[in-house]
Amino acid sequence: MSLENKTLVELSKDLTAKKVSSVEVTQFYLDRIAQHNPALNAFITVCNESALAEAKEADKKIASGHAGPLTGIPYAHKDIFCTDGIKTSCGSKMLDNFIAPYDATVTTKFKEAGMVMIGKTNMDEFAMGSSNENSFYGPVKNPWDHTRIPGGSSGGSAAAVAARLVPAATGTDTGGSIRQPASMCNITGIKPTYGRVSRYGMIAFASSLDQGGPFAQTAEDAALLLNIMAGHDEKDSTSVIHDVPDYTAELNKPLTGLTIGFAKEHFASGLENDVAVVIQEAIAELQKLGATIKEISLPNTHLAVPAYYVIAPAECSSNLARYDGVRYGYRCENPKNLDDLYCRTRGEGFGLEIKRRIIVGTYALSSGYYDAYYLKAQKIRRLISNDYQTAFKSVDLIVGPTAPSPAFKLGEKVDDPVSMYLSDIYTIGVNLAGLPGMTIPAGFVKSLPIGLQLIANYFDESRLFNAAHQFQQATDWHKKTP
Ligand code: GLN
Fold it and tell me: 0.85 exceeded by the pTM?
């Protein structure tokens, strides 16, 4: 098998058996990036020198017998994770000149595992978007069809893993930004339970929704990555004190005895027929593997997008107040006075979508409107969360589509924000409730990949990995490459 199609598990075996060195693997991927990235635009920064230096260190660790399971394997970071001494742009002109002075906790964890950081991936500005067209660095192209979007906001990471420019990458998911691009690029991605992965050093968009997670080719690889990423962090007050299990421990459990629900609201109007067929076939496959399938209802599904698009902008308007040209990041030329400094810095430094959200969010939080919008949205959030808890009384997992359509054309929805927002309909409820959700390759519509979404109850990531792994043992959608 060619090196680029090897999973983390396979690469790890080869590294341990010294069939290949970390320097060789790293150079191999750097060469692939040099060759294919110009067409895809998946990377904002490629770390040629530091990656090779880290790979050399990893080879020493392997030689001395002190390697962990992923030591020496290259990965890419979404450019939202702070990386000490390396540009961390968050896809924005505002941070184009920002060299992070410290590591995110997730970055530290990858370093401790001996993994090799090969570069920082392109993304929608401040993680706001569903198509990766909101990046200051230009859109990422879908490796399956360069005229289409890769999904967003972690589109660079998803495209890089799908095109085999790197065997693993990180993403963040505030309303679907790991699961939706995983679906559109034919890879595996998981958004863990809120609080499972530290947000320290992960640039904030909407703090009550943001959660980091991994992308990889397979569920087994994603489980290995979450083993590294998960855990309580005293630097993040919302990270949860909860044991981290070995996420690979239950991969091989048979699915007999498992009850899986599908929500009738996820198959209502809006879902493209061809996509529904792929998802129904995937559900039938899970049934063949022994699971019991049951229809459930998530009656407030239609309120998820409106509630999210009040809450997320409200939080972003507050989080992005820090970019004012005073402390760090972009500053306008020759400010006349303080007001001018603020206005021009923010006017010039932020892109259109960011400004739209800051205005919406500020409005929703303003006195006189707070109760009507923000408070109302929070009440709806509770109803949505209750719907899931009712469902989990009778099912172990919920499955369904990740997105209503396959990857759409670049430019198709840029002038229609509401239609763009509606593409998040199946993913956003999971973030509002704080639940873990995962997407795995499940088939194709007109040669474009379609991902199946699996949702579990709080801290039940192991069950997601189990069902996904069993599905991937029985199917080979995840092995298809562009
Ligand atoms: N598409 C959603 C948004 O634009 C979700 C983004 C995300 O998950 N970061 O807000």
Answer: yes
